[in-house]
Amino acid sequence: MADLITVDDPDDPRLSDYIGLTDVELRRRREPVEGLFIAEGEKVIRRARHAGYEMRSMLLSSKWVDVMRDVIDEVPAPVYAVSPDLAERVTGYHVHRGALASMQRKPLPTAAELLAGARRVAVMEAVNDHTNIGAIFRSAAALGIDAVLLSPDCADPLYRRSVKVSMGAVFSVPYARLEAWPKSLESVREAGFKLLALTPDEKASTLDDLAPHRMDRVALMLGAEGDGLSTQALVAADEWVRIPMAHDVDSLNVGAAAAVAFYAVTTGRPEN
């Protein structure tokens, strides 16, 4: 059972995990190094625990203590009860959901470990917007993507904004980082995957024509918002694929495009 501790000093060192949550650069540097991430909101906290992440501490406004009582009774980590004003002074924003938890990260698997048991994977290149990362992971979880591979310069899926947008789906889909880009794509191909580069280029085959759902193993490559996949990534791909557009729309947001493409590559997928 956790200790419920009332804190009224924003400089209390016990709240250090929650300092400056809106300072993106600070959190990017600090969280992976210290092995922590922040889960925001009741549902996300519960999903993180269900996924096996260990809780370091929890920060609750007073009205959320009763809501989270079962969690408080189950975890050994300290729980800090604070006023909404103090929570805002510590974190840098108004904590609308009233509940935050600092969670311990797990070691990431290797790409080879994930590929060994997968049939459908998403590969992201330089996707550094946390909202897009969260949206893509949510679609990946909902539509049956087995794993996600990230280029070295992709944003952190466990950054607070990514976790929140995904509604905790980042805990459901295993992911790994590819150490060398785009050289590591060759190891994906060697594992038996067809590398499909999603691009609006008219030279690309449509998803309907290519019918990737009939392929045995597919790795769908997604690029950053605006820039799309790099020339090097496009050259490394086996096929270029596109989503047909109407009404002179040239492309979709990468999060929306990912959802459409995930459905196309997973519908009717081969049974294990």
Automatic annotation (TrEMBL):
The keyword Chloroplast does not apply. It holds the Pfam family SpoU_methylase. GO terms for molecular function: methyltransferase activity. Keywords: Methyltransferase, Transferase. SUPFAM superfamilies: alpha/beta knot (SSF75217), L30e-like (SSF55315). The keyword Heme does not apply. GO terms for biological process: methylation. Gene3D superfamilies: 3.30.1330.30, 3.40.1280.10. Residues 121-263 form the tRNA/rRNA methyltransferase SpoU type domain. InterPro entries: Alpha/beta_knot_MTases, Ribosomal_eL30-like_sf, rRNA_Methyltransferase, SpoU_MeTrfase, tRNA_m1G_MTases_N. PANTHER family: RRNA METHYLASE, RRNA METHYLTRANSFERASE 3. This is RNA methyltransferase.
